Amino acid sequence: MAKGYWVSVYPAISDPARLTAYDKLAGPAVQAGGGRVLSRIPSRGGRVVAHEAGITQRVVLIEFDSFEHAVAAYESEAYQKALMALPDGVERDFRIVEGID
Asked: Which ranges carry the DUF1330 domain (predicted)?
């Protein structure tokens, strides 16, 4: 079964302190849905090199055992509550993608 991934890129974060409130709710919701954070840069000291239209802002990659698990975690009550805490001043490009078997 192909894995599922959440891919989030944050082109603009106007209030990093408020983003922390989202993180505190989103982390447990992701874990409860079976998600594993593979990368969260640059906030964890990871390195990034941007090419073409790429940006060096925050990038988050989370792996799930399946695409269906990734979708279910996003639709969960716990994650929907986390989304309500996401500040208005955060621009985010979020996708759920299916991996290759």
From this structure: 3-100
| Cα–Cα distance for residue pair 26/79, rounded to 1 Å | 6
Residue 63 to residues 8, 11, 51, 75, 93: CA-CA distances in angstroms? 12, 21, 24, 16, 17
Q: How confident is the model at residue 68 (pLDDT cuts 50, 70, 90)?
A: very high
Q: What is the pLDDT of residue 44?
A: 62
| Residue pair 26/62 in contact by the 8 Å Cβ criterion | no
| CA-closest candidate to residue 55, choices 28, 26, 93 | 93
Predicted pLDDT at 20: 87
Q: Which amino acid is at 84?
A: M
Q: Is the separation of the CB atoms in 13 and 86 below 8 Å? A: no
Does position 45 have pLDDT exceeding 80, yes or no?
Answer: no
CA dist list (Å): 89 to 7, 13, 92, 95, 97: 19, 6, 10, 19, 25
The Cβ-side half-sphere exposure at 46, using a 13 Å CA radius, reads: 16
